[in-house]
Amino acid sequence: MNVRGLFITVVLLVTGNEAGFSDEPKSSGLVTQLVIKGPSGPLEVSGQVLVEAQDGGVLLEERNGRIRQLTPAVIESKTPSDVPFSAMSNDELGNDLLSQVQAGFEIHQTDHYVICSNSAEEYAEFVGKLLEKVFDQYFEFMNDQEIAVRQPAGRLPVIILQSEAEFKEFAAAQHPETSFEDTPGYYSLRDNQMLLMDLTRDRSLRSSTAIRKRLSDQPLQVATMVHEAIHQLSFNTGLQVRMADNPVWLSEGLALYFEPIAPRSANLWTRPGLVSGRHHPVFVRDSENGATEIPLRDLLADDKAFLNADSMATAYAESWGLTSYLFRQQKDGMKKYLTKISQRKPLQRVSPEERVAEFQEAFGKSPDEIERETVSFVRRLRPAR
User: What domains, with CATH codes, occur in the chain?
Assistant: First the structure.
């Protein structure tokens, strides 16, 4: 189970609130130049200000998509400009990614991604085709659900590292506060990057057939790529707001709903909504008495179950089951709920009571009612064999 992307989300949110970023967002869409205190002296950064606190703290989005939380103590100067803010061009983003890695990496561009990789070119191409398939299906699914999403501001950044050692080293440098043991990939909410490990670990594989065969033996790892791709898409298409107080059950439920692979397909994945062979048995086991092990009201109210090793597997299974039920049986309510979520503001907390009230208002039913209906629905599902 890969939970790192959303664990990082929670950590950053708490840090931001403790720093006092509680004011209304004040993005002007213009570039602001800042000089901040860096580890080796003054550092110049620029981007659009997403939030500016009364004490002078700033939430800044840079052109490569990275978000910085800057307290007044680290800001030496701040100079607004009349230059419109824009995402990096494809070539700029490629050069930016290359500046973050060692020699030996190359850039592979697809219609919607810029992939920086030191794996075999054929592996980067295979991953690119998989990501494009997920991209297309994501937008097709949201259109069918009548849920408004927008195209990303620019191509989405992906880094593929050929060896496990390189992956761990990069991940530890990017997020030293988090362990990435047994994690083949994650989405960094702060840096807006997807980081993936080459699942073949073999640069000698030069055909898509050989790569596909090697990956077909690692279904959970391939599912992780899809999972993290959905995290990146949801935060770049207006479905969720980066640095907002997004319910973890929803963020994970979305990714889990999309992730089950199709081992016989060319890309090892075809579409969202397949019954999860991993989470369905857990849900069924934990709901034998007709109720979920974690009461739905508790899952909605806060994210504690995802940060506890004893309850984590159950929380993920329930998130998958709940999301599956809501998308299939409560389309209008899901549209209302996701619209509400998309209006969240960066670094503004939503109380447990507000979370539950939002959910109940969108679906017109109490959490207890939705819980009973979800259990009945999920227990009737059958994973593909």
Answer: 10-84 (2.30.30.100), 89-232 (3.40.30.160)
